[in-house]
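HUMAN: Can I see a protein plus its fold?

ASSISTANT:
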Amino acid sequence: MIGVVPSLTEPVVPAGRIRALLQPTLTVDDLTQWAFDVLGLHRLELLHATDNHPSCRAAIKAGFYAEGTMRRQGLHRDGWHDMHLHARLAD
């Protein structure tokens, strides 16, 4: 069986620009609950660069468990980066 798992990936743009684009701000938890409640999804994945420790803490705080490292998965301006994979289940 082939399936699709939606994922949340941290954008690679300056923080000030993100804040300007996302006013009013939705939290990761808001988006997660919407995806589970409205879309009926059962699993969400969240990715962040391995050296982005604040994003890792935020993912864990939002209930996303760390599942591993995806090598050279994220293409940033300075090249390929390893990404941490976190996931949260609806139940």
Q: What stands out?
A: The mean pLDDT is 80. The two ends are 22 Å apart (CA to CA). The beta strands are 7-9, 43-49, 65-76, 79-89. Residues 13-89 form a domain with the Aminopeptidase fold (CATH 3.40.630.30).
